[in-house]
Amino acid sequence: MAQTPAEIPAAAPAALPAPAVRLSADQARRIALRAQGLVGPPDRRAGAGGVLRRLGAVQLDTISVLARSHELVPYARLGAVGRRPVEQAYWGRGTAFEYWSHAACVLPIEQWPLFAFRRRAYRSKGHVWGHPVSPAAYAGVVDRLRAEGPLTSTGLGGAKRTSEWWDWSDTKIAVERALAFGDVVVTERRGWKRVYDLAERAVPAELFEQDLTDAECLVRLVALAGAALGVATRADLLDYHRLKSAQLDAVLPESGLVPVEVEGWGAPAWADPAALAAADAAGGGAGRGRHRTTLLSPFDSLIWDRPRTERIFGMSHRLEAYTPRHKRVHGYFAMPLLTAGRLVGRVDPARAGGVLVARQVSLEAPKFVPALAEALREAAAWTGCSGVRVERLEDESLRPELERLLG
Question: How many separate domains does the chain show?
Answer without folding.
Answer: 1
